[in-house]
Design a protein that fits this description.
It holds the Pfam family DUF2470. It comes from Streptomyces lavenduligriseus. InterPro entries: DUF2470 (IPR019595), Haem_oxidase_HugZ-like_sf (IPR037119). By secondary structure, the chain is of the alpha+beta class. Helices cover about 30% and strands about 35% of the residues. The longest helix is centred in the C-terminal third of the chain and has 16 residues. The protein is elongated. The relative contact order is 0.16.
Length: about 240
């Protein structure tokens, strides 16, 4: 379920895809009818190719040996999982289709089609943009930052919720930080049987953690000038009862 807050200043599809690819710990690979799942087995080259280190008895090696020119067509699947426990935890899925080839004891995958699916729907990512893009500069720190914010500073999350439009907080039972990137922070608004996501854009991009800290403090200062949302007032009053 979506909410009415405007979504602004978000990473482009190519950057988002590269962030998902660089941080995903596991992947599923399908090639010529062989499907295998691996954890911690892939690395990414600067131009977006994927290097897979798989066991010698992997069916993928057999597929590559039997395919014409030893390059079987393949599909790689990755999931972006929210680091904070929420309902419907997968934030995005990434599909790469292309070709596998043996390379120095591993398999090198060259993508020919990139599809990113987020809550807004699927988008085909331009290959040149994908090759040139880089992961969000906060991507590697995101899990640590979000879990710390949720676990150690729930009061700050509540203050940030004051920046959410009242209609988006209707019937809210919980507000948690879902995602952060250099352009903004996303909150998950959970209800009894539904949820929605609201993005709080930064006043300027944050290229590192110190800059992110300043941007969040700016949001908190902005929130301090607003009142406590009625929906959360009612939620707190109900909890006190």
């Amino acid at each position: 379920m979506g909410d009415t807050q405007d979504w602004t200043a978000a990473p482009g599809a190519a950057e988002r895809a590269r962030s998902v690819l660089s941080l995903a710990w596991s992947c599923a690979v399908t090639a010529d009818g062989v499907r295998e799942e691996y954890a911690g087995a892939h690395t990414v080259t600067e131009d977006g190719r994927v290097r897979l280190t798989v066991p010698d008895d992997s069916g993928l090696f057999a597929a590559s040996l039997c395919a014409p020119r030893q390059e079987p067509s393949a599909l790689l699947e990755f999931a972006d999982v929210a680091p904070v426990p929420v309902r419907h935890r997968i934030r995005a899925r990434l599909w790469l289709s292309g070709w596998l080839a043996p390379s120095e004891g591993a398999l090198l995958f060259r993508p020919t089609r990139v599809v990113l699916r987020q809550a807004s729907g699927p988008v085909v990512v331009d290959l040149d943009e994908f090759a040139a893009a880089r992961p969000d500069p906060l991507a590697e720190a995101e899990a640590r930052l979000l879990t710390h914010l949720a676990d150690a500073h729930p009061d700050a999350v509540e203050r940030l919720s004051r920046l959410v439009r009242p209609e988006s907080l209707h019937a809210a039972t919980r507000v948690v930080p879902l995602a952060v990137d250099r352009h903004g922070l996303t909150l998950r608004i959970e209800r009894t049987r539904a949820h929605g996501d609201v993005r709080l854009p930064f006043h300027a991009p944050a290229d590192d953690v110190p800059q992110l800290t300043e941007r969040v403090h700016a949001l908190l200062a902005q929130a301090a000038a607003t009142g406590c949302p009625r929906a959360l007032q009612r939620q707190r009053a109900d909890g006190d009862g």
